[in-house]
Amino acid sequence: xxxxxxxxxxxxxxxxxxxxxxxxxxxxxxxxxxxxxxxxxxxxxxxxxxxxxxxxxxxxxxxxxxxxxxxxxx
Length: 74
Prior knowledge:
- The chain is elongated.
- The protein has helices at 3-7, 10-18, 30-40, 46-73.
- Helix content is 72%, strand content 0%.
- It has one domain (14-73).
- The mean pLDDT is 92.
- It is an all-alpha fold.
């Protein structure tokens, strides 16, 4: 069922996290800004939600891949 996740190389996910997941880098990574907005209750505009989804997707995929790799190893 998760064969599609197994097919994605780990290096590609790490590269996606370091680029799409973090840009723009200055003054702070965009995903960090969106997470702060979420926890402060200020993530209300639909565009902000979409933006967080786009910048957060690589991180979620990387986490899922690492968890899957650990579970298959056990």
